[in-house]
Amino acid sequence: MTTYKSIEINGQQIFYREAGKTSAPTILLLHGFPTSSHMFRNLIPQLAGEYHVIAPDLPGFGFSEAPPRNKFKYTFENIAKVIGAFTEKIGLKRFAIYVFDYGAPVGLRLALAHPDRITAIISQNGNAYEEGLSDGWNPIQKYWQEPNEANRAALKSFLAPEATRWQYTHGVADESLVAPEAYTLDSALLARPGNEEIQLDLFLDYASNVALYPKFQAYFAKHQPPFLATWGKNDPFFLPPGAEAFRRDLPKADIRFFDTGHFALETHASEIAGAIHDFWEKKVSAPSRQVA
Protein backbone atom coordinates (compact mmCIF):
# COMPACT_ATOMS: atom_id res chain seq x y z
CA MET A 1 0.00 0.00 0.00
CA THR A 2 1.14 3.53 -0.79
CA THR A 3 0.63 6.06 1.98
CA TYR A 4 0.23 9.81 1.49
CA LYS A 5 1.79 12.11 4.06
CA SER A 6 2.95 15.65 4.72
CA ILE A 7 5.75 16.90 6.95
CA GLU A 8 6.89 20.40 7.87
CA ILE A 9 10.32 21.32 6.52
CA ASN A 10 11.73 24.78 7.18
CA GLY A 11 8.26 26.17 7.78
CA GLN A 12 6.55 24.66 4.74
CA GLN A 13 4.54 21.50 4.26
CA ILE A 14 6.10 18.90 1.96
CA PHE A 15 3.79 16.20 0.63
CA TYR A 16 5.17 12.74 -0.11
CA ARG A 17 4.21 9.22 -1.09
CA GLU A 18 5.74 6.26 0.71
CA ALA A 19 5.62 2.51 0.16
CA GLY A 20 7.58 -0.61 1.04
CA LYS A 21 9.32 -1.77 4.20
CA THR A 22 11.56 0.77 5.87
CA SER A 23 14.16 -1.97 6.33
CA ALA A 24 14.50 -2.40 2.55
CA PRO A 25 16.93 -0.38 0.37
CA THR A 26 15.55 3.11 -0.08
CA ILE A 27 14.94 4.84 -3.42
CA LEU A 28 14.13 8.56 -3.38
CA LEU A 29 12.02 9.44 -6.43
CA LEU A 30 12.40 13.06 -7.58
CA HIS A 31 9.95 14.35 -10.17
CA GLY A 32 10.35 17.08 -12.77
CA PHE A 33 8.46 19.87 -14.52
CA PRO A 34 5.52 20.35 -14.71
CA THR A 35 4.46 17.37 -12.66
CA SER A 36 4.67 15.91 -9.14
CA SER A 37 5.06 12.60 -7.34
CA HIS A 38 1.86 11.62 -9.15
CA MET A 39 4.08 10.70 -12.13
CA PHE A 40 5.37 7.73 -10.08
CA ARG A 41 1.91 6.29 -9.30
CA ASN A 42 2.42 3.31 -11.64
CA LEU A 43 6.06 2.69 -10.71
CA ILE A 44 5.78 2.77 -6.92
CA PRO A 45 3.68 -0.43 -6.59
CA GLN A 46 6.14 -2.28 -8.83
CA LEU A 47 9.10 -1.29 -6.63
CA ALA A 48 7.53 -1.47 -3.18
CA GLY A 49 7.89 -5.23 -2.86
CA GLU A 50 11.70 -4.97 -2.74
CA TYR A 51 12.47 -1.35 -1.92
CA HIS A 52 11.48 1.40 0.48
CA VAL A 53 10.17 4.07 -1.89
CA ILE A 54 9.81 7.77 -1.04
CA ALA A 55 8.47 10.33 -3.53
CA PRO A 56 8.15 13.95 -2.34
CA ASP A 57 6.55 16.82 -4.22
CA LEU A 58 9.09 19.61 -4.67
CA PRO A 59 8.22 23.03 -3.16
CA GLY A 60 5.81 24.79 -5.50
CA PHE A 61 4.70 21.54 -7.15
CA GLY A 62 1.99 18.97 -6.62
CA PHE A 63 0.49 18.93 -3.15
CA SER A 64 3.49 20.46 -1.39
CA GLU A 65 3.13 24.00 -0.17
CA ALA A 66 3.97 26.82 -2.58
CA PRO A 67 5.15 29.69 -0.37
CA PRO A 68 4.84 33.19 -1.85
CA ARG A 69 7.91 34.34 -3.78
CA ASN A 70 8.59 37.02 -1.15
CA LYS A 71 8.84 34.28 1.50
CA PHE A 72 10.81 31.66 -0.46
CA LYS A 73 13.21 32.27 -3.34
CA TYR A 74 12.53 29.66 -5.98
CA THR A 75 15.95 28.42 -7.03
CA PHE A 76 17.15 24.86 -7.54
CA GLU A 77 19.66 25.36 -4.75
CA ASN A 78 16.91 26.28 -2.29
CA ILE A 79 14.68 23.43 -3.45
CA ALA A 80 17.57 21.00 -2.98
CA LYS A 81 18.12 22.33 0.55
CA VAL A 82 14.46 21.68 1.38
CA ILE A 83 14.61 18.15 -0.02
CA GLY A 84 17.91 17.52 1.77
CA ALA A 85 16.31 18.60 5.04
CA PHE A 86 13.32 16.39 4.20
CA THR A 87 15.54 13.30 3.83
CA GLU A 88 17.15 14.02 7.18
CA LYS A 89 13.89 14.66 9.02
CA ILE A 90 12.30 11.39 7.84
CA GLY A 91 15.49 9.55 8.80
CA LEU A 92 17.03 8.54 5.47
CA LYS A 93 20.69 7.64 6.03
CA ARG A 94 21.66 6.09 2.68
CA PHE A 95 19.50 5.97 -0.41
CA ALA A 96 19.43 5.73 -4.18
CA ILE A 97 18.03 8.63 -6.19
CA TYR A 98 15.71 8.25 -9.16
CA VAL A 99 15.84 11.58 -10.96
CA PHE A 100 13.69 12.93 -13.78
CA ASP A 101 13.95 16.34 -15.46
CA TYR A 102 14.07 18.98 -12.65
CA GLY A 103 14.66 16.13 -10.19
CA ALA A 104 18.14 15.62 -11.66
CA PRO A 105 19.71 18.93 -10.55
CA VAL A 106 17.94 18.59 -7.20
CA GLY A 107 19.13 15.02 -6.61
CA LEU A 108 22.64 15.65 -7.90
CA ARG A 109 22.98 18.59 -5.53
CA LEU A 110 22.19 16.13 -2.72
CA ALA A 111 24.93 13.87 -4.08
CA LEU A 112 27.46 16.72 -4.17
CA ALA A 113 26.64 17.67 -0.59
CA HIS A 114 26.72 14.12 0.82
CA PRO A 115 28.24 11.65 -1.66
CA ASP A 116 28.46 9.01 1.07
CA ARG A 117 24.67 8.88 1.32
CA ILE A 118 24.04 7.93 -2.32
CA THR A 119 23.87 4.20 -3.04
CA ALA A 120 22.94 4.44 -6.74
CA ILE A 121 21.54 6.83 -9.35
CA ILE A 122 18.71 6.08 -11.77
CA SER A 123 18.14 8.80 -14.36
CA GLN A 124 14.95 8.91 -16.39
CA ASN A 125 15.70 11.73 -18.81
CA GLY A 126 17.56 13.55 -16.05
CA ASN A 127 20.29 15.50 -17.79
CA ALA A 128 23.82 16.43 -16.69
CA TYR A 129 25.61 17.06 -20.02
CA GLU A 130 25.19 19.95 -22.45
CA GLU A 131 24.84 17.64 -25.45
CA GLY A 132 21.60 16.42 -23.90
CA LEU A 133 19.92 19.81 -24.34
CA SER A 134 17.79 20.04 -27.47
CA ASP A 135 16.83 23.13 -29.47
CA GLY A 136 13.63 23.10 -27.44
CA TRP A 137 15.65 24.93 -24.79
CA ASN A 138 16.40 27.87 -27.09
CA PRO A 139 13.64 30.20 -25.79
CA ILE A 140 14.67 29.49 -22.20
CA GLN A 141 18.36 29.96 -23.00
CA LYS A 142 17.48 33.29 -24.59
CA TYR A 143 15.93 34.31 -21.28
CA TRP A 144 19.13 33.30 -19.47
CA GLN A 145 21.17 35.48 -21.79
CA GLU A 146 18.73 38.41 -21.72
CA PRO A 147 16.58 38.20 -18.58
CA ASN A 148 14.08 40.88 -19.56
CA GLU A 149 10.29 40.99 -19.32
CA ALA A 150 9.76 40.27 -23.02
CA ASN A 151 11.77 37.06 -22.88
CA ARG A 152 10.08 36.09 -19.60
CA ALA A 153 6.62 36.65 -21.05
CA ALA A 154 7.50 34.57 -24.12
CA LEU A 155 7.91 31.52 -21.87
CA LYS A 156 4.35 31.63 -20.53
CA SER A 157 3.27 29.45 -23.45
CA PHE A 158 5.23 26.57 -21.85
CA LEU A 159 2.74 26.70 -18.97
CA ALA A 160 -0.44 26.43 -21.06
CA PRO A 161 -2.56 23.25 -20.75
CA GLU A 162 -1.95 22.34 -24.39
CA ALA A 163 1.81 22.58 -23.85
CA THR A 164 1.60 20.26 -20.84
CA ARG A 165 -0.44 17.74 -22.80
CA TRP A 166 2.07 17.93 -25.66
CA GLN A 167 4.92 17.11 -23.26
CA TYR A 168 3.09 13.92 -22.31
CA THR A 169 2.14 12.80 -25.81
CA HIS A 170 5.05 13.89 -28.04
CA GLY A 171 7.06 10.89 -29.17
CA VAL A 172 4.51 8.37 -27.88
CA ALA A 173 3.52 5.71 -30.40
CA ASP A 174 0.11 5.07 -28.83
CA GLU A 175 -1.36 8.14 -27.13
CA SER A 176 -4.18 6.04 -25.67
CA LEU A 177 -1.63 4.78 -23.12
CA VAL A 178 -1.26 8.26 -21.64
CA ALA A 179 -3.75 8.81 -18.82
CA PRO A 180 -5.49 12.19 -19.29
CA GLU A 181 -5.67 12.80 -15.54
CA ALA A 182 -1.87 13.11 -15.51
CA TYR A 183 -1.59 16.22 -17.66
CA THR A 184 -4.95 17.54 -16.44
CA LEU A 185 -3.76 17.45 -12.81
CA ASP A 186 -0.47 19.10 -13.75
CA SER A 187 -2.30 21.89 -15.58
CA ALA A 188 -4.68 22.47 -12.68
CA LEU A 189 -1.80 22.80 -10.21
CA LEU A 190 0.18 25.05 -12.56
CA ALA A 191 -2.88 27.33 -12.69
CA ARG A 192 -2.89 28.04 -8.95
CA PRO A 193 -2.58 31.75 -8.09
CA GLY A 194 1.06 32.81 -8.15
CA ASN A 195 2.38 29.58 -9.61
CA GLU A 196 3.05 30.99 -13.07
CA GLU A 197 5.64 33.40 -11.68
CA ILE A 198 7.21 30.60 -9.62
CA GLN A 199 7.69 28.52 -12.74
CA LEU A 200 9.14 31.44 -14.69
CA ASP A 201 11.63 32.01 -11.86
CA LEU A 202 12.71 28.38 -12.16
CA PHE A 203 13.07 28.64 -15.94
CA LEU A 204 15.56 31.45 -15.32
CA ASP A 205 17.40 29.62 -12.57
CA TYR A 206 17.81 26.45 -14.64
CA ALA A 207 20.96 28.14 -15.95
CA SER A 208 22.49 27.44 -12.53
CA ASN A 209 22.08 23.71 -13.19
CA VAL A 210 23.97 23.85 -16.48
CA ALA A 211 26.70 25.82 -14.72
CA LEU A 212 27.00 22.91 -12.26
CA TYR A 213 27.34 20.24 -14.96
CA PRO A 214 31.17 20.14 -14.60
CA LYS A 215 30.82 19.56 -10.84
CA PHE A 216 28.20 16.85 -11.37
CA GLN A 217 30.52 15.18 -13.87
CA ALA A 218 33.47 15.42 -11.48
CA TYR A 219 31.32 13.75 -8.81
CA PHE A 220 30.54 10.88 -11.20
CA ALA A 221 34.19 10.44 -12.13
CA LYS A 222 35.40 10.49 -8.53
CA HIS A 223 32.73 8.43 -6.76
CA GLN A 224 31.57 6.08 -9.54
CA PRO A 225 28.05 5.50 -8.18
CA PRO A 226 26.16 2.58 -9.76
CA PHE A 227 24.23 4.27 -12.57
CA LEU A 228 21.21 3.36 -14.69
CA ALA A 229 19.68 5.56 -17.38
CA THR A 230 16.13 4.74 -18.48
CA TRP A 231 15.65 7.23 -21.29
CA GLY A 232 12.65 8.01 -23.45
CA LYS A 233 14.50 8.31 -26.74
CA ASN A 234 11.90 10.62 -28.32
CA ASP A 235 12.12 13.26 -25.59
CA PRO A 236 11.88 16.71 -27.24
CA PHE A 237 13.96 18.37 -24.50
CA PHE A 238 16.61 15.88 -23.34
CA LEU A 239 18.25 14.05 -26.21
CA PRO A 240 19.75 10.52 -26.29
CA PRO A 241 23.32 11.91 -26.51
CA GLY A 242 22.73 13.25 -23.00
CA ALA A 243 22.19 9.70 -21.77
CA GLU A 244 25.15 8.30 -23.68
CA ALA A 245 27.41 11.06 -22.30
CA PHE A 246 27.23 9.58 -18.79
CA ARG A 247 29.59 6.84 -19.97
CA ARG A 248 32.40 9.39 -20.29
CA ASP A 249 32.57 9.67 -16.52
CA LEU A 250 30.82 6.41 -15.60
CA PRO A 251 32.22 3.72 -17.93
CA LYS A 252 30.09 1.03 -16.26
CA ALA A 253 26.85 2.99 -16.65
CA ASP A 254 23.84 0.95 -17.76
CA ILE A 255 22.12 3.00 -20.50
CA ARG A 256 18.72 1.84 -21.74
CA PHE A 257 16.48 3.56 -24.28
CA PHE A 258 12.73 3.19 -24.60
CA ASP A 259 10.62 4.06 -27.63
CA THR A 260 8.63 6.79 -25.94
CA GLY A 261 8.77 10.46 -25.02
CA HIS A 262 9.57 12.69 -22.06
CA PHE A 263 7.20 11.01 -19.60
CA ALA A 264 8.42 7.46 -20.17
CA LEU A 265 6.62 6.08 -17.10
CA GLU A 266 3.25 6.82 -18.69
CA THR A 267 3.87 4.13 -21.31
CA HIS A 268 6.75 2.00 -19.99
CA ALA A 269 6.41 1.78 -16.20
CA SER A 270 6.63 -2.02 -16.17
CA GLU A 271 9.66 -2.08 -18.46
CA ILE A 272 11.44 0.56 -16.37
CA ALA A 273 10.61 -1.26 -13.14
CA GLY A 274 12.09 -4.42 -14.67
CA ALA A 275 15.22 -2.51 -15.66
CA ILE A 276 15.60 -1.21 -12.09
CA HIS A 277 15.27 -4.70 -10.58
CA ASP A 278 17.81 -6.08 -13.05
CA PHE A 279 20.22 -3.17 -12.52
CA TRP A 280 19.94 -3.40 -8.74
CA GLU A 281 20.72 -7.10 -8.68
CA LYS A 282 23.71 -6.80 -11.03
CA LYS A 283 25.20 -3.41 -10.17
CA VAL A 284 24.16 -2.67 -6.57
CA SER A 285 23.36 -5.86 -4.64
CA ALA A 286 25.94 -8.20 -6.23
CA PRO A 287 28.97 -5.86 -5.75
CA SER A 288 27.85 -5.24 -2.15
CA ARG A 289 27.76 -8.95 -1.46
CA GLN A 290 31.25 -9.34 -2.94
CA VAL A 291 32.60 -6.59 -0.67
CA ALA A 292 30.91 -8.18 2.34
For the report, how would you describe the main beta sheet?
8 strands, mixed
Low-confidence stretches: none
Number of strands: 8
Morphology: globular
Strand content range: 15-25%
Helix fraction, binned, reads 40-55%
Question: What is the arithmetic mean of pLDDT?
Answer: 97
Notable features of this structure?
292 residues, eight-stranded mixed sheet, 8 strands, globular
Describe the 3D structure.
- With 292 residues, the protein is α/β, with parallel strands linked by helices.
- It has eleven helices and eight strands.
- An eight-stranded mixed beta sheet has the order 1-2-4-3-5-6-7-8, sandwiched between helices.
- Helix 6 runs antiparallel to helix 7.
- It is globular and about 55 Å long.
- The relative contact order is 0.15.
- The mean pLDDT is 97.
Quick gist of this model?
This protein has 292 residues and is α/β, with parallel strands linked by helices. It is 44% helix and 17% strand.
Secondary structure elements and their pairing?
Layout: E1 3-9, E2 12-19, E3 26-30, H1 44-47, E4 52-56, H2 76-89, E5 95-100, H3 103-113, E6 118-124, H4 138-145, H5 149-154, H6 161-169, H7 180-190, H8 195-223, E7 227-232, H9 240-244, H10 246-249, E8 254-258, H11 265-291
Parallel strand pairs: 3-4, 3-5, 5-6, 6-7, 7-8
Antiparallel strand pairs: 1-2, 2-4
